[in-house]
Recover the amino acids of this structure.
């Protein structure tokens, strides 16, 4: 759709004059008034980089699963992507994955943190993660991944339960942004094993607080405790 024509006051309106003049004054696709380029579509740029790296990993036979916000997007969570793409990979594949990406001209670097390597693909940041919130990526985790289309390219994506588990495990006193995780919980609530996540989160204050919040917001059903009859022990 072409941009609306603006009058001198900045209000939307219909320009006067011949059609040829109106067309000439309408910015071309990809431009704004004055011929300046439109801001890049970050969501599409991130998806293009994601598809590129996923294709290389698939072609080389390296097991992986999409994680983080792009995984949530793949599961259908509405989002405008603004940050990097996370891939869960096995630690023992670090050298092979690095070599595969570098052979395709993708810059790979090792940050001070020892639980991931970083890459830059098509100008976008890629994190290849060996641990999700201090939990090592395992073959079992990757086997539970679901094959989903990501902008028409099929790739393994963390299961909804594993995706939410990684989000809960990342909560701490220094990182506790419930607002970023709440839309994922709402969108995927029927696909997540909440009983399993409750057991995994037992004794962890921040995940337990988030689960309690979900109950109060009627996103998930509260836990019902069985009251023992007089003279009988609870099962």
């Amino acid at each position: 759709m072409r941009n609306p024509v603006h009058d001198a006051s900045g209000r939307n309106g219909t320009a006067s004059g011949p059609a040829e003049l109106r067309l000439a004054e309408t910015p071309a696709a990809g431009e704004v008034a004055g011929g300046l380029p439109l801001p890049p579509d970050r969501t599409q740029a991130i998806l293009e980089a994601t598809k590129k790296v996923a294709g290389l990993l698939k072609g080389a036979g390296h097991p992986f699963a999409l994680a983080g916000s792009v995984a949530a997007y793949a599961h259908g969570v509405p989002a405008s992507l603004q940050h990097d793409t996370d891939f869960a990979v096995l630690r023992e594949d670090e050298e092979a994955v690095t070599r595969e990406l570098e052979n395709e001209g993708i810059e790979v670097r090792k940050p001070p943190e020892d639980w991931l390597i970083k890459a830059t693909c098509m100008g976008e940041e890629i994190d290849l993660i060996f641990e999700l919130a201090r939990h090592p990526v395992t073959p079992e985790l990757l086997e539970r991944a679901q094959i989903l289309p990501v902008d028409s390219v099929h790739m393994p994506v963390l299961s909804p339960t594993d995706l939410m588990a990684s989000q809960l495990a990342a909560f701490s006193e220094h990182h506790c942004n419930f607002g970023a995780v709440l839309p994922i919980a709402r969108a995927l609530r029927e696909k997540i094993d909440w009983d399993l996540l409750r057991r995994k989160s037992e004794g962890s204050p921040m995940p337990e607080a988030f689960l309690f919040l979900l109950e109060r917001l009627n996103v998930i059903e509260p836990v019902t405790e069985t009251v023992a009859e007089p003279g009988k022990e609870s099962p």
Q: What stands out?
A: The chain has two domains: 26-158, 159-223. The longest strand covers residues 116-121.
